[in-house]
Amino acid sequence: MTRLWNEPADFADEMVDGFARANARWVRKVHGGVSRSTVAAEPEVAVVIGGGSGHYPAFAGLVGPGLAHGAAMGNLFASPSAHQVESVARASHRGRGVLLSYGNYAGDVLHFTEAQEALRADGIECRTVTVTDDIFSASPHEAEKRRGIAGDLTVFKIAGAAASRGWSLDDVERVARRANARTRSMGVAFSGCTMPGAAEPLFSVPDGRMAIGLGIHGEPGLAETAIPTADGLAELFLEHLLADAEVPVADATGARVVPILNGLGSVKSEELFVVYRRVAELSEARGITLVDPQVGEFCTSFDMAGVSLTFLWLDDELEELWGAPADTPAFRTGAFDQSGLAPAHDAPHVDAEAAVRAIPAASTESRQAARRIAGLLAAVRETIDAHADELGRLDAIAGDGDHGIGMQRGARAAAAEAADLAARGAGARTLLVGVGDAWADRAGGTSGALWGVILRTLGSRANDGESLTRERVAAGLSEAAESVMAYGKARVGDKTLVDALVPFAATLAAGVADGEDLATAWEAAAKAATKAAQDTADLLPGMGRARSHGDKALGVPDPGAVSLALIATAVVELLAAD
To answer: Is the pTM here over 0.70, yes or no?
Structure first.
């Protein structure tokens, strides 16, 4: 289990600070993560990677000459926010464009895509390559739906080497895509990992059993078998990886492959070497040449007892780029020439936390509404604090267990931002937009992005110059439901937050249209959301990380829908009292 922490919700922030202080030779802390502390003599395409924390050395440990230029670092097992990604990208950009690369997870796709759009709108050329190496997360016919695990390293290394050679953004993107297409990974676990502050691991594996196809965020495996010998595990890896390889097994003779045997947290190096011995024997027997073997920790999951094997099938170009020098805190190869590097302390970057938002003028009515909203968000924070452990438990059954902490960080940030803006005289629109940004920025992950959409859309219906009427509230939440579906692509029945949000918004709108006051209509809407959230227990997941786990999610309500229902219910009493 994870033993050393202060406040669990602060763990990721304190970890980033400590990492940057310990590795100032390579990185400097910027808002949202880290960027290189040096710059090359000639501008390069900036390779910006990232994802949730808890996977060291992914992702910050791979920032340095010859590899990544920056890493956006999200909350524990949760994607960084769009603001974080954008900030790291701006800090790393040197005028030749940005390549974003990350594992293919719903929250990461939402936030990195939003950041890409913001960069492009500002004239910065930006491309994306998602990593999809995990062969157990989707079939070969749906390879685009696969998630990224330890194969992240091959894509990042190839892209970073191409950028360090001064290649164009087109060519850096091209080789990164080729590396991804020729990378396959498979993972197994013997026990789950425990989040800071949690009493239990995210999932458990029966004694003597092994989970196959686990995810690096603590998602449970997709199948289970008896624990094999070390040789048996190597044989299992080779059987599946070769069957799925881009290079057919029949043509494997003469192939050149980079093998990466990765410990996920608590499997020791000595054990990995025993497994690798058999991996090498089996590969060589098939006529495969293993190039530059990597055995160690490259993408972990806190203290998970697990192992993954990655194969990168080389061609001449990829082999040359893989062997190029790199110098980062956690991955070093070759001799990198440091003579052309200069300190990056004068490089432009964005510090969103230091920016003070100007407060537009607002009417007395709108300022009063803003103060009421701030009070509601304080109640929301208390409710999420009280239920964070339960939300995490629900999420761990078929997901990654981070929903409670993510919601807690988002609700706390929103409540604090609301209190500050209300004290400074903000109107309802300014406050709602501000708290939407704060929630998304601090929570990260899919839920952070969606709650940011909800609050900002509601804010678009408010007005700093007028009172916030029940009609505006109902219309704003109806639009929010549509916006969330357009943004996250989920629909009713996919077992997501949408299953509770849509009936909530529809019931509220109907009540207001019938002439009910806001408190009465809201109470009915909260009951509808609560029932809808409970009913998600009967659904199979159609979106998000739980999708891969199918019937493991059956019988358990969706944590996103549950948290929305809890928030809706928490507001009822205050509205009635108001």
So the answer is: yes
